[in-house]
Amino acid sequence: MKSFHRVRCISTALFFCLANFAARQPALADDWIYTVRPGDNLWNLTEQYLRDISYVKKLQDLNRVKDPWNIPPGRKLKIPSSWIKKYPMLVRVLSVKGTARLIDGHGGSTTPVSPGALVIAGDAIETGADTTVVLQFIDGSKLTLQSESHLQFKDLMLFDYTGMIDTRMKLQRGRVETRVTPNKGSANRFQIITPAAVTAVRGTDYRVSAEQETIVSRTEVLEGLEGLVGVTGSGRRRLVPEGYGTVTVADRPPEAPVELLDPPDTRAIPKLFEQVPLQFSMPPLPYGQGYRVQIAKTAAFMEVLFDRKYSKALIRGPDLPDGDYQLRVRGIDEQGLEGKNAALPVRINARPEAPFLLQPRPEKGVVEETPTFVWSGQENIQDYHFQIARSRSFRELIVDIGNYSGVSLTVENPMSLGKYYWRVAAVDAREGDGPFSDAQGFRRINPAPEMEEPEISETLLVIRSRAGLPGQRYHFQLAEDVEFTKLLLDEQTSQPRVEIQRPDSGEYFVRVRTIDPDGFTGPFGQAQTIDIPMEGLYWWLLLLPLLALIAI
Length: 552
What we know:
Blueprint lengths: L1 H23 L6 E5 L6 H8 L5 H9 L12 E5 L5 E3 L2 E7 L2 E4 L6 E3 L5 E2 L4 E4 L4 E5 L5 E4 L4 E10 L5 E15 L9 E5 L4 E4 L3 E7 L4 E8 L5 E5 L2 E5 L3 E6 L8 E2 L12 E2 L5 E3 L8 E7 L7 E7 L3 E3 L6 E10 L9 E7 L8 E3 L4 E3 L5 E4 L7 E7 L7 E8 L3 E3 L7 E11 L3 E5 L3 E5 L10 E2 L3 E5 L8 E7 L7 E7 L3 E5 L4 E10 L12 E5 L5 H14 L1
Parallel strand pairs: 12-13, 21-27, 29-36
Antiparallel strand pairs: 1-2, 3-11, 4-7, 4-9, 5-6, 5-8, 8-11, 9-10, 10-12, 11-12, 12-15, 13-14, 14-17, 15-16, 16-19, 17-18, 19-20, 22-25, 23-24, 23-26, 26-27, 28-30, 30-33, 31-32, 31-34, 34-35, 34-36, 37-38, 38-41, 39-40, 39-42, 42-43
Helix pairs in contact: 2-3
């Protein structure tokens, strides 16, 4: 019933459009230039193209045709556009992202805008925040209505049999991007009216914006398929060439066109995003400038999924589903004119999310020849993809195990000493492999050096460890407590020994670790206990063996 009701409303609107057209008959500024073909005469031309047969005489007088029945092929005839038969035209909604409403131009009722909806003269479309609506005209022209915009369709007419259209729209506020099909005749018209200016084209890729509060309009011409774009304000007309833009303030003529900013450098934008929301950095901005970022499913940008302005170089984007997208960025100059587009394909593969790596800890050393790796389990994830490599790029894999069902893994083959990186990805039965976790480094190391028996003299305490690898340094600690919070010694040395003044008698704790030439610090070995005897008893203790012999 709703579909039938909408069809009936369109039919009624078409009837009123025809009636209004018959009453108003708005004249166009340009005439249609027709090239005579073999067999043409003023009678059949008038019958096919003009409003009624009475225009034969007018057409003959205007073009000074001597014989209306015989006209040489190739001759150019000038035909005022107001004489040509015209019929109401429909505009079709191609896509909607977000929330928009269609305001009936005759009854004032509103309905949600959906793909496939038809728009007639008098209707208006309002878009909400984060919304884009793509419209297609009968000649193939397309218009993208962006967020928080209000666009009214003033005239939507088709010149009969000519392929030309007469289109006038009023952008009360917001922004549109258009790609107008090159016209099929000189009477073709495609106009966008704002409170500050009128922009007229005959085939081009351009943008128009209207600021309702300040009554400022901006026009940016990206591709001039049919020459210049005319912008009129306060009775003055400016021609804007390809690659230029102009600003028009209410009650003032359009400003002199200025060159649009070149496409920005996008080399820092990753081609693959493995985390959402998207985030990337653009080149630093001069004062007063900004960026606009748009994301669509296809390079034609028929369905814009994301559209936002930024005043800083750090871009924080949307949380989109995994898949392939087109990303488009352009600069915004100090006058608010948006520049030329830089576009690139990007892919999002952020799901399922990578697990957290638990063991070994980042940049720590492991002494086991076949280490054990542990990561966090995830709900609804049964399998994981585990990798170890020598470099962070993971070009040369040491271990590569897919479809592993556990959350801990002990490698089978002994690993040589050195630096490694490991990472894990979750595997979903529906989405496949998710992104790998950030690569986490670890080092396969020798155990901490073993301590040798310390030397205690009357004045010195000498602590030794077994020698490590060439180039290593040694970090010794001596403390009064096993937690090593009360340090008596904390020293690094190039030799596997250190000496200090003999401490007071009592129990002490000592430990040592190695430091590699590249700065990597291994773990401390197990703490060992040193008993320092009372100083007065020291020589007596040395004489005990001699006294025992004398007693014998």
